[in-house]
Amino acid sequence: xxxxxxxxxxxxxxxxxxxxxxxxxxxxxxxxxxxxxxxxxxxxxxxxxxxxxxxxxxxxxxxxxxxxxxxxxxxxxxxxxxxxxxxxxxxxxxxxxxxxxxxxxxxxxxxxxxxxxxxxxxxxxxxxxxxxxxxxxxxxxxxxxxxxxxxxxxxxxxxxxxxxxxxxxxxxxxxxxxxxxxxxxxxxxxxxxxxxxxxxxxxxxxxxxxxxxxxxxxxxxxxxxxxxxxxxxxxxxxxxxxxxxxxxxxxxxxxxxxxxxxxxxxxxxxxxxxxxxxxxxxxxxxxxxxxxxxxxxxxxxxxxxxxxxxxxxxxxxxxxxxxxxxxxxxxxxx
Length: 334
Ligand code: ADP
Ligand code: TRP
Prior knowledge:
By secondary structure, this protein is mainly alpha-helical. Helix content is about 55%, strand content about 10%. It is built from 14 helices and five strands. β4, α9 and β5 (about 185-190) form a beta-alpha-beta unit. α8 (about 135-145) packs across α9 (about 160-175). The mean pLDDT is about 95.
């Protein structure tokens, strides 16, 4: 049996260089391995937990779908779908809610951080303003994963706890009813974490990102904003003096990186270095950007791809959900 790899992307933002280097590029490369079977989906029902702007959810769903397709995801080879198109996931979500310990959710990082924020603000009710969606976020994620009995789940480091919770929930169900669920593993990639324009991790939450498919001109402008120091042209510079280097490294081969390091040591001006970096990123992204723009202009084509993906995914989900319901005693009377 092939190894099942599944991952979801929350539809609340527009993909940035960090997402590309850390998640999209490696996931698409992995999906081309013959010994694995990949499931990729747009987690729009996770998106609505934090984002209450309908236009943003909608625009992000389109942008994320177009990005994955433009970057080479082959919907014939993988199962590519939108979470909200698979009602079986929501059905499983409830079933798992009934096998998930409440105490487990009390320990979830996102919930604890929200409680901490209330405490820090001196608000009496620790649960002030916290909705059940945030509290139950890990159960929906468990349903996403267990619905397809994925073995490997590539995620960022911040999601590892959710995978532990998924295993816990699955184990409890298997023990109480029937061994139906695979216990999945989190796979945290070795990829570099890109730094954003302000020196912190590049993240949509910090508003310090370089959008993946902005125009070539804007890309150069964004790269120009990456922090450097006050060293003049001609002064020797080292790779650790600016995040520019690590971004370059994510797009250049070893020989080019060695050459760039030597040029910096020789006193390359930061302005010149930024031109080299932007050109190198652009060389990789330009053909993808063209495809992205074509896709964005034809949302009905993306919709058709997602609908085809949903049919594939639902057929698969149904088989397991029927077994799960049977195990619970939720079945026809005759
Ligand atoms: P953001 O921090 O912008 O909200 P997400 O948390 O949605 O990004 O991350 C989606 C995926 O992109 C995850 O797999 C995460 O590890 C990866 N990722 C996000 N930011 C970076 C970064 N700065 N460098 C490398 N990978 C990143
Ligand atoms: N919570 C994940 C994130 O914010 C997105 C996600 C939702 C996901 N469901 C998933 C990732 C299932 C992997 C598997 O990054």
